[in-house]
Amino acid sequence: MKDGEGLYTQRCAGCHGDFGEGLGRWPALSGRAGTLAGDRPVKTIGSYWPYASTLIDYVRRAQPFGDAQSLSNDEVYAVAAYLLFLNDIVDEDFELTKETFRKISMPNERGFHDDDRETTERAFWNPNPCMTDCKTDIKIIDRARILDVTPAARPRRQAID
Ligand code: HEC
Questions:
Q1: Ligand 1 within 6 A of 108 CB?
Q2: Are the C-beta atoms of residues 28 and 20 closer than 8 Å to each other?
Q3: How far is the CA of 152 from the centre of ligand 1 (A)?
Q4: The CA-based dihedral angle spanning residues 62, 54, 44, 91, taken in that order and rounded to the nearest 10 degrees
Q5: Are 60 and 79 in contact (CB under 8 A)?
Q6: For residue range 71-114, what is the model confidence (pLDDT) as tens digits?
Q7: Model pTM?
Q8: Most exposed residue of 34, 75, 87, 139, measured as fewest CB within 10 angstroms of its CB?
Q9: How many other CB atoms are there within 10 angstroms of residue 4's CB atom?
């Protein structure tokens, strides 16, 4: 993890913030636990991600943004360990390896469940859904170019915290 801190500061903090809090509109990687059910949910490694393996794999394939796959495997493990530490998931001296990652249990792991709609919602389904020419009584009442769909002024950007 200690190796990860320097690397994170050099290669990641410029966008994601010193503590993973996210800078400007770059994504936050830590904190916001318990926000998912609230009005302003923020998905972070700690608040959302179910498995550490996803984090390791994603960083290995896709980060640092704009310079993907420039880290060695050891660097990926080190920086991922540091991100887990920033999310209070592992201790400061935790060493992330292909063996130790299996011991990690992520805070939101139980927030996911299998899609059960096929059994729970089956009763609502139409057994013979129409797939072609379904509506015959369509009347065109207006055209987009004369509808007032373009706002006159640029909308103000909504701030995200
Ligand atoms: C130039 C800015 C930049 C840098 C530097 C950068 N990232 Fe990112 N990072 C991004 C952006 C943008 C995304 C969102 C990408 C997307 O959704 O396709 C992202 C997404 C992520 C995510 C997923 C966040 C989520 O919950 O979806 C992780 C994890 C991550 N970065 C880790 C890292 C690590 C580790 C480093 C350093 C090795 C790093 N990033 C460096 C910009 C950056």
A1: no
A2: yes
A3: 34
A4: -110
A5: no
A6: 999 999 999 999 999 999 999 999 999 999 999 999 999 999 99
A7: 0.80
A8: 139
A9: 25
List CB contacts of 86: < 8 A, sequence separation 6 or more. Answer: 19, 20, 29, 30
Query: Is 84 touching ligand 1 by the criterion CB < 6 Å?
Result: no
Whether ligand 1 lies within 6 angstroms of the CB of 42 is answered as no
CA 157 centroid distance within chain: 21
Nearest atom in ligand 1 to 49's CA:
26
CB atoms within 10 A of CB 124: 7
Q: Give the C-alpha separation, 44 to 30, whole Å.
A: 5
> Which of 25, 29, 96 is the pocket-test mutation for ligand 1 (most atoms within 8 Å of CB)?
29
Distance CA(143)–CA(133), nearest Å, equals: 21
Domains of the chain: 2-109 (1.10.760.10)
Atom number, ligand 1, closest to the C-alpha of residue 48: 26
Return the CA Rg of the chain. Answer: 23
Give the position, in ligand 1's atom list, of the atom nearest the Cα of 14. Answer: 5
